[in-house]
Amino acid sequence: MPDVQGGQLAAEALIRKGIRYIFTLSGGHITPIYQHLENSPITLVDTRHEQAAVFMAEAWGRMTRSPGVAMVTAGPGFTNSLSAIANAFFSNAPLVLISGSVGIESIEKLDLQDMRQAPVIEPMVKRAFVCHKPERIPEFVDLAMRTAMAGRPGPVYLELPVDVLNTFTNTEGVKWPNTAVETLPVDAGKAVDLVEMIGNASQPIVISGSGSWYSNAGEELVAFVEKTGIPAFTSALGRGTIPDTHPLCFESSLGIRPGAAMFANMTSDLVILLGTRLGLYYIFGDIFRKEATLVQVDIMPGEIGRNRSVDLPVFSDIRGFLKACNRIIDERGLCRPLRERFRGWVDTLRKADGEGKALASPQWESANLPIHPLRLAREVNDFMNRDDDIVVADGGDTQIWTGMTRTMRSAGHYLDSGLFGCLGVGLPYANAAKLLWPEKRVCLVTGDGSVGFNFMEFETSIRKGLPIVVVISNDLGWGMIRHSQELRLGHAIETGTRIGRVDYHSMVKALGGEGTCVERPEDIRPALEKAFASGKTTCINVMTDPTTVSPGSIALANLGAYKA
Question: Are the C-beta atoms of residues 190 and 153 closer than 8 Å to each other?
Answer without folding.
Answer: no
